[in-house]
Design brief:
globular, Rossmann fold, two-stranded antiparallel ribbon, alpha/beta, 7-stranded mixed sheet
């Protein structure tokens, strides 16, 4: 049996699956995680510079929300830089708007319901190692500001690109009041370079990062 060849080889696998975990390995992808699990191809902190270039695809399912915002931006920058022109990033992440509509009853509510809803909302933000939850508008804003092109949202398992269909493995996808429980976005590397612009860093520093900095 021929051994798998990674993205550093010219004829290697040019599809990187980040944050794969031990149970969601994809056979035609280079599966990476920050922790060593049986069956993964590489241990890698994807918030640090990547050793790969000319990638065809980067995919991450229920991964982005586990990164603090500044690290998420570095991951997106690394992924974008590693893609070839026309290469595609596909991400799935919980939808904050769905969480709001399903976890917290608007208007009047009895005290016990309000207490339980308060717990559910905080659990959505802090449970399962979550750090930052996104909306469709926020994801579009971030990837566009960083230089990605052709930003498109899809429903669970669907894509205009057959190579990117049916990748998702996490179950429980729902739609409530028109809002999907999970946002699935694709964005391409266009002719422009991918980078974290100073204006984006300043925006998040002003409106978010300085409020959660240690000691403040």
């Amino acid at each position: 049996m021929q051994s798998r060849r990674g993205p550093t080889y010219k004829d290697g696998i040019k599809r990187v699956h980040v944050g794969c975990g031990p149970h969601n390995l994809l056979p035609d992808w280079w599966n990476v995680d920050v922790r060593k699990f049986s069956g993964i191809d590489a241990v890698c902190d994807v918030t640090q510079p990547w050793p790969w270039e000319d990638l065809e695809y980067v995919f991450g399912e229920h991964f982005l929300e586990h990164l603090p915002l500044d690290q998420a931006l570095r991951f997106l920058e690394n992924a974008g830089k590693s893609l070839r022109t026309g290469g595609t990033l596909r991400l799935s992440t919980p939808n904050l708007e769905w969480v709001l509509r399903t976890h917290f009853l608007q208007g009047e509510a009895e005290s016990q319901r309000r207490i339980l809803d308060t717990i559910k909302m905080n659990r959505a933000f802090h449970g399962w190692g979550h750090h930052f939850l996104y909306t469709k508008e926020m994801l579009t804003f971030v990837v566009t500001e960083m230089g990605f092109a052709n930003v498109t949202f899809y429903t669970y398992g669907e894509s205009a690109n057959p190579d990117l269909c049916n990748l998702e493995r996490h179950g429980g996808f729902q739609v409530y009041d028109g809002q999907p429980s999970v946002l699935i976005v694709e964005a391409q590397r266009g002719p422009d370079s991918i980078a974290i612009p100073a204006t984006l860093t300043a925006f998040f520093q002003e409106h978010f990062l300085r409020y959660i900095a240690s000691g403040h």
